[in-house]
Amino acid sequence: MFATHDRTRIAMAGLPAAVGQHYWSQIEVPLFVPFLMVTYKPEPGREDDCQGAATGQGAATEMLGSVEDLVASTYWAARNNLVIDTVCLICPAHMCGQKHWGLYLLTGISIAFEPDAREQVAYVYETTEGKMVSSLLSTPVEKLVWAKQLFSFKGSSLAAQAS
């Protein structure tokens, strides 16, 4: 489940029961799925109601593991006088067709289906560079059957518009 490296291994000195015991200053969690980094900002005119507004910083940034979490997060944001400022896709290499993980600023998220198996749902992430990244690896994006756009992050404030 976790990957460790000897260079981060530290002896637990000073504890009688810990003789010969070690801990790691860092570990890796091998992930093979994408996740989203979402930044929020105060709603226009509500800047004084939000933490971080006085310093000019965004009110919150969080990492989400799914589009479903993003949907739930929009309700949390609305209750806290926040709007989505940016959404980035942090994408494993096999999914984005690269040698390394990619970080992409998104303009939208849509839902699509496998042409021959409608029960296989795909999320299609649209980047500011015009790249389309699909969560369904078995079918190229251009062959998917489009259902609807779930989010659009276009516009000057990049506020999420849930469809």
Provide the fold topology.
Blueprint: E1 9-11, E2 22-24, E3 35-42, E4 60-64, H1 67-79, E5 82-91, H2 93-96, E6 102-114, E7 117-127, E8 132-134, E9 145-152, E10 161-162
Antiparallel strand pairs: 1-2, 3-4, 3-5, 5-6, 6-7, 6-9, 7-8, 9-10
Question: How does this structure look, described?
Answer:
The model is unreliable at 52-56 and 156-163 (pLDDT under 50). This protein has 163 residues and is mainly β. Strand 7 and strand 8 (132-134) form a beta hairpin. The protein has helices spanning 67-79, 93-96, and strands spanning 9-11, 22-24, 35-42, 60-64, 82-91, 102-114, 117-127, 132-134, 145-152, 161-162. The protein contains two helices and ten strands. The strands form two sheets. Strands 3, 4, 5, 6, 7, 8, 9 and 10 form an eight-stranded antiparallel beta sheet that branches. It folds into two domains: 1-30, no CATH class; 31-162, no CATH class. The two termini are 37 Å apart.
